[in-house]
């Protein structure tokens, strides 16, 4: 009897090991790749965005005011417009995700401005913000060949050519959200201007403001330099809206 029990226990253990191994393989096959997870999240986010836009149009139809009527008529015009779909497809192929996101944001901002009778974020920035230094733009926003490692990367701001220790000024009123130093941007400052708008200043030689303090348009924030991942003295300048980088040249009047 003892021999029978020991054989049975051995057989049971082998079955259990096989079952555990199969379950492990099953779940490893079922696991999603990071890319699949990203695409899934993007689809969900875009569907939610489309639903919000649809809801806005319905509200504009039900709540009749001069502003909502203008938004509804504009939306109806867009839907009923006759388009050259081959031309649209050609344009879509040349678009990148950044471009599509920016155009979608601009559309939503215009719709909000029509409803409220106010200005879009773009109009506010154009009328109120200034570049932090005067100088030639040596590297624009977008994809470029990295000047150090020669790989193709997305440049989330613009580089302005200025000599070392030039005064770097606040683009507009705000509060110092962050300041410090990292390997890429070197010494940097981030200003929160409210309404989701932020500006970032990098490769500084020195920082003359404190985190949490308020600043006014034109106040000196620090001195330009060559700190961080940089090949020559210049100012790296970024414009952000709701955490997403924007092309400063499309928003701020450049003299």
TrEMBL record:
Pfam families reported for this sequence: Peptidase_M23
Keyword list, A-Z: Hydrolase, Membrane, Signal, Transmembrane, Transmembrane helix
Enzyme class: hydrolase
Domain of life: Bacteria
Enzyme Commission no: 3.4.24.-
Domain M23ase beta-sheet core, residue spans: 153-248
TM regions (residue ranges): 47-64
GO molecular function, one term: metalloendopeptidase activity
Signal peptide: none
Protein name (record): Murein DD-endopeptidase MepM
Species in which this protein is naturally found: Clostridium liquoris
């Amino acid at each position: 009897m003892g021999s029978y029990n020991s054989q049975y226990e051995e057989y049971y253990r082998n079955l259990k090991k096989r079952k555990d191994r199969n379950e492990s393989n099953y779940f490893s096959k079922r696991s999603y790749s990071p890319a699949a997870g990203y695409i899934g999240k993007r689809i969900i986010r875009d569907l939610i965005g489309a639903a919000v836009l649809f809801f806005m149009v319905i509200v504009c139809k039900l709540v009749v005011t001069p502003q909502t009527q203008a938004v509804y008529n504009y939306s109806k015009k867009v839907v009923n417009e006759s388009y050259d779909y081959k031309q649209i497809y050609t344009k879509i192929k040349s678009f990148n995700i950044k471009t599509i996101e920016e155009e979608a944001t601009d559309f939503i901002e215009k719709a909000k401005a029509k409803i409220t009778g106010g200005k879009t974020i773009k109009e506010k920035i154009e009328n109120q913000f200034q570049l932090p230094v005067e100088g030639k733009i040596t590297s624009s926003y977008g994809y470029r060949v990295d000047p150090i490692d020669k790989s193709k990367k997305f440049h989330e701001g613009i580089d302005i050519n200025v000599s070392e220790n030039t005064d770097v000024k606040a683009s507009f009123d705000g509060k110092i959200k962050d300041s410090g130093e990292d390997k890429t941007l070197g010494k940097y400052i981030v200003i929160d201007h409210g309404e989701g708008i932020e500006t970032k200043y990098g490769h500084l030689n020195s920082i003359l403001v404190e985190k949490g303090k308020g600043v006014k348009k034109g106040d000196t924030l620090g001195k330009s330099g060559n700190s961080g991942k940089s090949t020559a003295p210049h100012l790296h300048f970024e414009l952000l809206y709701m955490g997403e980088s924007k092309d400063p040249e499309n928003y701020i009047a450049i003299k």
